Every structure is written in structure tokens, then in C-alpha cells.
């Protein structure tokens, strides 16, 4: 049975684009119907394969943005103008189009709704995608674990899921969201545009004595800096899980 499960995850499936949704001027969410999808955990990813008429194929990994539920899932793709895959996914693919996918993949960078400890999410740019899956999974399950998200974006217009995050973090929901902007902050914002630093982490994340489960996702440099700062602040290294991506246009 275990072997059959693993083989199922390695099987390419033909998904159908059910809908597309613009998140920002440079990012789009793809809503996919995937017959036979085995389900996934919040934080997992999948592979996407594109094949040209001449037989050339290429693939990339993308984090799943949605909570698990039936045969439908969502990917959010950030457009990289010089990318090989993202321009097609974020700019050409339309409802009704097929798309080859394989997964789910990954078992380390995941969150399960039955875990009660506080959760600290730290995102850099599109690194918020798998963390959003965790937030959505928490909401879908009605879980009580308190969540905090520290989201670093270049400027307000590049922050993904802003309206949904604002809605989910109101009314004593147990989700707290802090935004940090690195290039341009809104007028009157309490913190000037700057990278995440020790002072911001001290104010925005759960203190070490709460022993939160920490998930950090974003570009490699961002993830390494944040992880080092968290350890220096007293967080237990074994409770910090990281996911990083490089300049190739892959996950998240």
C-alpha cells in the first residue's frame, strides 16, 4: 500500500484549468481540477510539466496554495519575464486548457490542523504561497492553533492575498498579520521600507518561550537571514522549518 501511494505521487496527471485569478499585476492563481488527486498537506508542492509540439519538455515545482479538498487545487505563479515556464502559466494558460502535474511532493515543510502549538509564519515575496495553504487549512478545519504571519514584500501592490488575509485576520480569529515592505512603504506606515531585522522579529513573532512551530519561506538569502536571526533570538533550531527558492522561477 505504501509503495502504491508513492507511485501515485510520481504519476503525471492531466489537470484542467477551471479558472484563473489575478492576484497582483505580476502574479496569477490557477485553479486546477485534477481527477484522481490524492489530496495534500498544507506546505506541499507539485511538479508542472510543459511539452512543446517538437517534443521538448521542461518542468518546474510550485507550492500548492490551497487547503486540501477533493480534486481541486490552486497554484499561484509569479511572472518572471525571462522565465521559461512562468510566462506561459501566468500569462497564456486559460480556463479549459490542460496542464500536466505530478504530486503532492514533500513531507517536512508541512502543517497539520491537529497540532495545537502556536505557529509562526515568515514569508518573503512569493514565499507566502505555501504559508497561505497553511492559513487556509487552519480556517477550513476550524483549528484553534494561534497563527502569526510576518510577510515581507517589496511594496503594497506586490503583496499576494491581501484582501483575504485582511478578512481572515479580523474578529478575533487567532490569525495575526504583520506586513513589512523593503522598497516602498505606504505613506504614514509605522516602519520605513527596510529588510526584516532583529527588531522587527522581536516585535512581530511569537517569543521563544512560547515554543512556536516556525515556517520560513522565500528567496535563499531571506530565509537564511531570518533563520539566523530567530536562532540568535533564542528560538529552538529544531522548531524552525525552512523552504527556499532561487532565481530559476521554480517553487514557490
TrEMBL record:
PROSITE patterns: FAD_FR
Cofactors (names): FAD
UniProt keywords, alphabetically: 2Fe-2S, Iron, Iron-sulfur, Metal-binding
InterPro entries: Cbr1-like_FAD-bd_dom, FAD-bd_FR_type, FNR_nucleotide-bd, MRET, OxRdtase_FAD/NAD-bd, Riboflavin_synthase-like_b-brl
UniProt-listed Gene3D superfamilies: Nucleotide-binding domain of ferredoxin-NADP reductase (FNR) module, Translation factors
Domain of life: Bacteria
UniProt cross-references to Pfam families, sorted A to Z: FAD_binding_6, NAD_binding_1
Presence of the UniProt keyword Iron in the record: yes
Domain annotation FAD-binding FR-type: ranges: 10-111
Record's protein name: Ferredoxin reductase
Organism (species): Streptosporangium longisporum
Upper lineage: Bacteria, Bacillati, Actinomycetota, Actinomycetes, Streptosporangiales
Amino acid at each position: 500500500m505504501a509503495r502504491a501511494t508513492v507511485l501515485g505521487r510520481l504519476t503525471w496527471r492531466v489537470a484542467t484549468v477551471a479558472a484563473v485569478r489575478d492576484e497582483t499585476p505580476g502574479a496569477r492563481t490557477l485553479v486546477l481540477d485534477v481527477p484522481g488527486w490524492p489530496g495534500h498537506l498544507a506546505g506541499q508542492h507539485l511538479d508542472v510539466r510543459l511539452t512543446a509540439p517538437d517534443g521538448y519538455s521542461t518542468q518546474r515545482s510550485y507550492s500548492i496554495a490551497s487547503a486540501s479538498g477533493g480534486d481541486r487545487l490552486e497554484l499561484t505563479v509569479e511572472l518572471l519575464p525571462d522565465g521559461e515556464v512562468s510566462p506561459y502559466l501566468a500569462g497564456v494558460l486559460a480556463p479549459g486548457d490542460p496542464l500536466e502535474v505530478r504530486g503532492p511532493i514533500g513531507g517536512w515543510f508541512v502543517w497539520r490542523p491537529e497540532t495545537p502549538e502556536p505557529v509562526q509564519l515568515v514569508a518573503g515575496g512569493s514565499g507566502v504561497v505555501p504559508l497561505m495553504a497553511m492559513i487556509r487549512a487552519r480556517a477550513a478545519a476550524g483549528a484553534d492553533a494561534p497563527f502569526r504571519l510576518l510577510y515581507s514584500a517589496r511594496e503594497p501592490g506586490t503583496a499576494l492575498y491581501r484582501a483575504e488575509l485582511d478578512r481572515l485576520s479580523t474578529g478575533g480569529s487567532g490569525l495575526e498579520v504583520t506586513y513589512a515592505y523593503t522598497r516602498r512603504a505606504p505613506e504614514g506606515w509605522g516602519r520605513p521600507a527596510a529588510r526584516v531585522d532583529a527588531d522587527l522579529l522581536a516585535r512581530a513573532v511569537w517569543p521563544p518561550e512560547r515554543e512556536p512551530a516556525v515556517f520560513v519561506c522565500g528567496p535563499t538569502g531571506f530565509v537564511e537571514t531570518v533563520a539566523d536571526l530567530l536562532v540568535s533570538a533564542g528560538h529552538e533550531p529544531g522548531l524552525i522549518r525552512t523552504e527556499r527558492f532561487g532565481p530559476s522561477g521554480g517553487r514557490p
